[in-house]
Amino acid sequence: MASSKASIYSALIANLLIAVTKFVAGAISNSGAMIAEGIHSVVDTVNELLLLLGLHQSKKKPDSTHPFGYGKELYFWSFIVSILIFGLGGGISIYQGIHHIVEPEPLTNPTINYIVLGLSIVFEGASLVVAAKHFNKSRGETPWWEAIVKSKDPSNFLVLFEDGAAVAGLFIVLICTFLNHQYHMPMLDGVASILVGLVLVAVSAILARESRSLLMGEGISPETKIKICKLVERDKAVTKVMHILSTYQSPDEILLMLILNFEDELDTAGINEAIDRIRADVKAEWTLVRFVIIQPETIAHQDTYME
């Protein structure tokens, strides 16, 4: 989690500095695309602050109103970030683009745009490298897209997507600004804004999908379920694992419920001892499993539950 914060802080500092320079450059050169890029950087800055808020809130201790803790705060704020990228980033950029296509205005001083865009690419690129290195470390040998889908920590890939979209947007604006300057086509300024907006909308859709899945209660993988079944059924008191229910409370906490069929000859004391033993075995094998609820049930009632 410390490395997640490092990538967020690096992106926060880069976006804050770049946003100011983009707005200044946009005002001087009369570039709508540059203003759209400035808005993009402001949204990214707010997003980093919200991610840090989510990380902080998710570490709050359980209390009487939240007995399983506040881990899902991170998922909530990650979803809010995806909405902001869509609405403030993508929506405003597209609106700016349409406005500058309908009423194109010539560039007055493109030189400062080139300078700002070049510096922004360097700074955003450096932030992207930091985020990519962190994500590479966390994913191990897992392919990129598979790691994003399987990741339970949105702070791992949110900054990566934000920085990737930022670098892509900067290159779009740079190319369109150059063509605008060379061929005197002011409508390209609006085209650049729309393209940047579409990039942000696409990124926000991916991030919203992943954050929503986690917020709604994404559980452990089928492979992990099979391994837990094998471990639990090795216990002498268990005849069958009837159902496994699970949800990620946070990237570091899993709530697990096991519905088990025990040997018929076991009395209440024997079942309680088996439950304590199984709970300890599962927690020892999977350190992310913080809460284990075990419910005895007979095979006759197994159809009343769903995985």
Uncertain regions: pLDDT < 50 for 5+ in a row? 301-307
Rg, nearest Å: 25 Å
CATH superfamily of the largest domain: Cation efflux protein transmembrane domain
Please tell me the overall pLDDT: 86
Strand proportion, as a percent range, falls in 5-15%
Tell me, what's the shape?
elongated
Could you please describe the fold and organization of this structure?
It is built from nine helices and three strands, in the order ααααααααββαβ. The model is unreliable at 301-307 (pLDDT under 50). With 307 residues, the chain is mainly α. α2 (32-58) packs antiparallel against α6 (154-183). The chain folds into two domains: 2-215, Alpha-lytic protease prodomain-like (Up-down Bundle), CATH 1.20.1510; 222-304, 2-Layer Sandwich (Alpha-Beta Plaits). A three-stranded mixed β-sheet has the order 1-2-3. 69% of the residues lie in helices and 10% in strands. The longest helix is centred in the N-terminal third of the chain and has 30 residues, at 73-102. It has helices at residues 2-29, 32-58, 73-102, 110-139, 144-150, 154-183, 187-215, 222-233, 268-285; strands spanning 238-250, 253-262, 289-296.
Question: How are the SSEs ordered, and which strands pair?
Answer:
Elements: H1 2-29, H2 32-58, H3 73-102, H4 110-139, H5 144-150, H6 154-183, H7 187-215, H8 222-233, E1 238-250, E2 253-262, H9 268-285, E3 289-296
Parallel strand pairs: 2-3
Antiparallel strand pairs: 1-2
Summarize the structure.
The chain has 307 residues and is mostly helical.
Task: Based on the model shown, name its key terms.
single chain, 307 residues, mainly alpha, Alpha-lytic protease prodomain-like, Alpha-Beta Plaits, 2 domains, three-stranded mixed β-sheet, 9 helices, elongated, disordered C terminus
